Amino acid sequence: MSEREGKRKVGIRELSPIDVYKLLPRTNCKECGEENCMAFATKVVNREVPIEKCPPLLKKEHEKAYKQLKEMLKPAVKEVVVGVGDRAVKIGGKLVMYRHEFTYFNPTAVAIDVTDEMSEEDVLDRIKRTGQFSFEYIGQTLKLDMIAVRSTSNDPEKFRTTVKRVAENTNLPLILCSLNPTVLEAGLMAAPKSKPLLYAATKDNWKEMAELALMYDCSLTVLAPNNLKLLRSLTKTLLEYGVEDLVLDPGTFSGDGLGDTLNNFTMIRRAACKGGDELLGFPTIGVPMVAWMERGEAPEEVAKWREAYLAAMLVVRFADVIIMHSCDGWTLLPNVVLRQNIYTDPRKPVAVEPGLRVFGTVDENSPVMMTTNFALTYYTVASDIESGKVSGYLIVVDTEGIAVDSAVAGRKLTAETAAEAMKESGVESKVKHRKLIIPGKAARLSGEIEELSGWQVLVGPRDSSDIPKFLQEKWQSKT
Amino acid sequence: MKNQEEKVKRLPKNEKKKEFLGLKLSSRLMELLAKLQEVELEDFEMDVGNLEIWIQPGAVAAPMVAQPKVAPPVKVKPTEIIETEFIPPVETYPGKVVEVKLGATRSDGGTRGKPVIVGGETTPAFYTFERPTPHPPVIALDVFDMKVPLPKAVKMHVRDVLEDPAAWAKLAVEKFGADLITLHLISIDPLLKDASPQEAVKTVENVVQAMDVPLVIGGCGDPKKDADMFEAVAETFAGERFLISSITRDMDVERCAKFVNKNGHVALSFTPMDLNLARELNRKLYDFLPKKDIVMDLTTAALGYGLDYAFTNMERARLAALMGDPELAHPMSSGTTNAWAAREAWMKMGSEWEPRELRGPLWEVTTALTLLLAGVDLFMMMHPAAVKTLKDMINQLASGSSGNADALAEWVSMKV
Predict the structure, then answer these.
(1) Domain covering A79-343, topology
(2) What CATH homologous superfamily does A12-73 map to?
(3) Burial A162-198 (b: 16+ CB within 10 A, else e)
(4) pLDDT tens digits, B299-336
(5) What is the rounded CA–CA span in Å between residue B319 and residue B97?
């Protein structure tokens, strides 16, 4: 790791609240809403609040400290904003290479392509499907993020018409794709204020592309096929040219060369996060839809299948944007769920929706069980109930995403919260009996729950894998 | 949480038998993927023949254009590309994952055709810019010793062998390319058939006769019964280097480790998603087993159902191993079949998410590839198309074959 542009940034792990605190006004004015400057500094270091939440810091006399803090907190991978308005997408902004080192910010943006040679109907249909894509998952709505408009005609007029049509029919940010600057400019003229991501500057067209990016104030992709030396050189050149928001594309191989692709994405991210290389400290873009190039005579399902798993590998290996052609639910669903999983904050417990769950075929004599809404607890219990082929109800109590033993100790799972959850679940009207099975680790709540709810409480096993056995031996709906 | 790899989702009852597009597709998927391989080979030959055409410089050069209208001001803009260097950020690590050999040939005291070696990594998964992959990860296909409810997308491929583990194993090896077979001896479960360890031994014997890849011996999840069965199998098939799946904290670890060691097998150390527990169990095993006889399973959760925990646990374990933590420096096994525990893998959803016959195996592939990139060495899997895809990817990544960089920009103007 020798020659590197710029100085090495302080790694996120090395940054302590004290470092931030020292540069704050230290008046404990509470204008930020925190008790004191140290509490604010801690939140800043955890990236829970931006430093701009400190009003005094933004005053003239603190300008130097503000700039220093900005520099200190700058992510290893620059954050780039594409698009305008509500659906503008932030990409990059990564602080770390591995999610367990802190957390990943700005989930990989998924773009669906349209072309300037598709029929108007097709274009509108694809835009609509992209915009309407939505899947409810552990209390979140998973969506798609962008439209990539490609020029397959290489005709500026056709591209202009298509971009205009797309811009008029979606508020999703655009990626305008053509290696011909004239074509790209025609597209930009059709949506001049939409701040699209331009694709792409190459060793041959970089000057014209840089001018377009500057003129239309938008971000620019740098494409250097399987050549990180060129990628770095182009980045350096474009930065010198004045283009600040860059996105890196080392090329996506779908078959032979895939190993190089993963290596390139990995080396870019490592150079940025571990080596402090500012020339590679930009978001990356991967193109799973290259799988369609190798389709040959195969049915389109094969291209979709390959595109889908390529997308998954890129989501895992550091891509900040991916462009896909398939807009089928079956190819996109695993990928948006994977993206959600990888970008979940590992510092925070993950919770599931509280409420009543039904397993198997239930009737009025079915057992009623209880657990907490810590995602892993819930999914473990659910999986054990299902694999044990047990039918029954499961009341999921809102313990703010805490596991049973900690929830009991931390007073998140109490007789009150349990009784409340029972009432809200409506299980009373679903079963004839009045028996509740609680987790073995919540045994000490049994008396109180009986008192508050009027139900008889059975203390279940300490490990949910014993639920099937427990029910087999102990469960009878009648007393 | 133990022995999750044996847990299989039940199918909804009263399901309509309506055959739709997807069903046909899934049954054809293997065929399609196989065809695709051929197409690729043909294309490759063509590329070689036309290579000189590709070498022409400026193949992807964009046409020149008129100067932009707005005059760009301020600092002096470069007129040429400013050359910089790129030095690959290669690191060296103090640690190394131990190599574990599964299966023994006749000359080694067993009956298997050839052994499978896992582990040996000196770099994170497929960081081939640092060092090559010493042993490409391998895939074990699941075989059950009694009829179990399987997702429809899986069942259609094994329908004829569901009650014949030997035939099932043979099919998995010969048709689906299994590197190993995981024989799940679930009929010994006191809650199921409560079959005796001797009956399990008989089943193992039949499977051993039917094919010659190394075996993984799976239990039922009952700590006492599993230990009894494992012991009987270990003794009967001494020297075979079976992977005993699995030794858990609630078992008599000393007893298990001793009969695994005495009879020349390998232990799968299973813990529920907690690296400290994994270290603790491995330490216990070290008292009776050499490190080269231990593989670890840190628990696999399905995509959408805790895969983030599984992924990060495995990634951390592997990085820790490379940084010199000997207690985590074991090859990793994953019960990837758990992917089917996600209802999105098997359930009939709205028409916009169909066909589930493709969604299901893709769920398994996505789970597998995510964990492949975290460092898994041994996958226990189910769907033939998922297995084939993972295998292709492993071969692709391990081969280090290079692609045609000149063609990389062509997708921009590709007509689909």
Answers:
(1) TIM Barrel (3.20.20)
(2) Electron transport complex subunit B, putative Fe-S cluster (1.10.15.40)
(3) bbebbbeebebbbbbbbbbbbbbbbbbebbeebbbbb
(4) 898 898 789 989 999 999 999 999 999 999 999 999 99
(5) 10
Task: Report all structural domains of chain B as residue ranges with CATH numbers, in order of start.
Answer: 100-392 (3.20.20.20)
Q: Is the pTM of this model over 0.90?
A: no
Contact criterion met (CB < 8 Å) for A292 and B411:
yes
pLDDT score, position B149: 87
**Residue of A137, A206, A294 lying closest to B40 (CB–CB):** A294
The DSSP code sequence of A369-435 is EEEE-BHHHHHHHHHHHHHTT--EEEEEE--SS--HHHHHHTTSS-HHHHHHHHHHHTGGGT-SS-E
Q: Is the Cβ–Cβ distance between A53 and A34 less than 8 Å?
A: no
Phi, psi angle pair for A360, to nearest 5° = 65, -150
Confidence of residue B24 (pLDDT cuts 50, 70, 90): very low
Look at residue B42 in the predicted model and tell me its pLDDT: 36
CATH of domain A355-474: 3.40.50.11600
Give residue-wise pLDDT tens across range A418-465: 999 999 999 999 999 999 999 998 998 999 999 999 999 999 998 888
Mean pLDDT, range B116-132, rounded to an integer: 98
Q: Using alpha carbons, select from A113, A172, A125 the residue that is nearest to residue A323.
A: A113
Closest among B8, B389, B370 to A335, alpha carbons compared: B370
Which of B128, B311, B393 has the CB atom closest to A263's CB atom? B128
* Annotated domain spans of chain A: 12-73, 79-343, 355-474
Query: Virtual CA dihedral for B37, B38, B42, B45, nearest 10 degrees?
Result: 60
The Cβ of residue B134 has, within 10 Å, a number of other Cβ atoms equal to 16
pLDDT of A204 above 50? yes
A150 in helix, strand or coil? strand
Distances (CA, A) of A247 to A150, A212, A235, A471: 17, 15, 9, 56
Determine whether the interchain pair B366/A338 forms a contact, defined as Cβ–Cβ distance below 8 Å: yes
Contact A228 B86 (CB under 8 A): yes
B-chain CB neighbours of A206 within 8 Å are 81
